[in-house]
Amino acid sequence: DSHIPGYISHPKVKNVGKVFVVSVNDAFVMNAWGKFLDADKSSGIRFLGDLAGNFTRALDVEYEAAPMLGTNRSKRYALVVKDGKVESVHIDPDNTGLTGKSNPRPFCRSW
Asked: pTM, whole model, 2 decimals?
């Protein structure tokens, strides 16, 4: 649960449109993660798996983690998309977001 910042409990999350959490994982893991973090689905956030990492590579946010974790992983990032176009990109500087350097501020600014 430390991978998902304050977005999930942010009071305005329902007003921003669609919010997706994408991870290099399968649909079963993402479903379980969604149930754990948002059991009643009150946030409206959808949890999506990127099994082979194709979406992650297309965004150029993949990082080398295979030696330690078995597969490469995705950096933690937020995209703000309006009218089908990426308006801004916020990429966590340490790839994982576990150091506390990431926060929802840049993303939530437009809320």
From this structure: 0.76
